[in-house]
Amino acid sequence: MATQDQNTPTSPAEKELAQTTAAPKPAASGSRVDRSSTFSTTRIPADSDAAGKTTIAEGVVAKVAGIAAREVPGVFALGGGGARAFGAIRDAVNATDLSQGVKVEVGETQAAADLTIVVEYPAPIQEVANNVRAAVAGAISRLVGLEVVEVNVEVNDVHVPGDDSNENEESRVS
After folding, report:
1. Which residues lie in Polar residues bias regions (predicted)?
2. Where are the domains of the chain?
3. Bridge partners of 155?
4. Is pLDDT above 60 for 137?
5. Domain 53-159, what architecture?
6. 3-state secondary structure (DSSP) of residue 34
7. Dist CA 108 CA 86 (whole Å)
8. How far apart are the first and last CA of the chain?
9. Alpha carbon of 107 to those of 53, 57, 135: distances in Å?
């Protein structure tokens, strides 16, 4: 039986995220996380003498958080009304933004995330928010290797199935 390293990406999304690197944004005043330098990790394979530095961009952490939140049962969508409307247009051209509704701060060893979600009716809102918080913190910790200091969840709306269906409405024009 083959064993798999915990840090090895398994899903296509995890593989894509593992390959993404970029420079981090400069530190902001009043930051919730330690931004004293870029987060980096050196991973040296047992059969290699090479060393290096991996820098993980805030956008990567935001994607990890967005993917984790979308996988929680009861989450209908991420983002506020305007962001969701823009996202619907973007989705029509097959360019889904996995970090929509997600803001993160990334430091050397810590991360904080703010998410805006829409809960599917009749899911228990507090339970969904707690599950999103746990899923996002776990994904960032496991996939990115950062200590998660805070995950804030704002429930922006409740989606009632059938509200966005136009099938039963009469047309005003013929």
Report:
1. 1-11
2. 53-159
3. 117
4. yes
5. 2-Layer Sandwich (3.30)
6. coil
7. 33
8. 64
9. 15, 10, 20
Q: How far apart are the C-alpha atoms of 117 and 138, rounded to whole Å? A: 18
pTM of the model: 0.66
- C-alpha span between 62 and 161 (Å, rounded): 28
> What pLDDT does residue 97 have?
87
- Report which listed range, 30-44, 54-68, 74-88, is most confident: 54-68
Three-class SS of residue 91?
Answer: helix
User: Do 61 and 137 contact (CB within 8 A), yes or no?
Assistant: no
Rounded Cα distance, 132 and 158, in Å: 15
Residue of 31, 18, 3 lying closest to 67 (CA atoms): 18
Q: Residue 172 has what pLDDT?
A: 64
The Cα–Cα gap between 171 and 4 comes to: 56
Mean pLDDT, residues 23-27 taken together: 46
62 pLDDT higher than 90? yes
Mean of pLDDT values over 135-143: 99
Length of the chain measured in residues: 174
